[in-house]
Design goal:
five-stranded mixed sheet; about 200 residues; 6 helices; about 20% strand; 60s Ribosomal Protein L30, Chain: A; alpha+beta; binds zinc ion
Amino acid sequence: MTDNNIKTFEEAATFHGHVCPGLALGYRVGKKALEWLDANRAEDEEIVAVVENDSCAVDAIQVLTGCTYGKGNLIHKDTGKRVYTFFNRARGKGIRIVEDYVVMESPDTKALFAKSRSGAATPEEMKQFEEIRAKKIKEILSAPDDTFITAEETNEPPPAKARIFETLRCDACGEKVMAPKAVRLPGKILCRDCSEKQ
Ligand SMILES: [Zn+2]
Ligand SMILES: [Zn+2]
């Protein structure tokens, strides 16, 4: 893969809908993953990403690596950690990337951020907030990898492949539901929503 094929931060922002520090962090993680994938991927070999949070970062990772939720090669492992593991199924190899960006924020900045989130900031304070944020994003995008990213090969096995399941129909609402998610009661099959209303 050449640099020309690497999606830009702007492309990630278009997909995500806004520019934010989280997206910038994900962009850096995705870039790191690509370096490894480049060396470990032959054409059509299947890559899978396991992301341990559902933050803005994940959108940049989807754009850069092409691992997406809809294709089933983006898996959310809900630990809430800033850890991202990429596997090459054919090679049975993976890389575990830990992002540990530390932002030094003064109490003033923290107060400003809280104010802007609650909508209590004045236009002048909002401007100040945007400036600090833009600077932070710029810093993240230009910081040397080794100051906040660690990447280690892992021998952990890749997650099981996504399977295709039979589709059933809920006896209460009539909507289709994947067989393993259906709730089977005596004489009827329900979706989870309807079973909770019983
Ligand atoms: Zn965001
Ligand atoms: Zn239902």
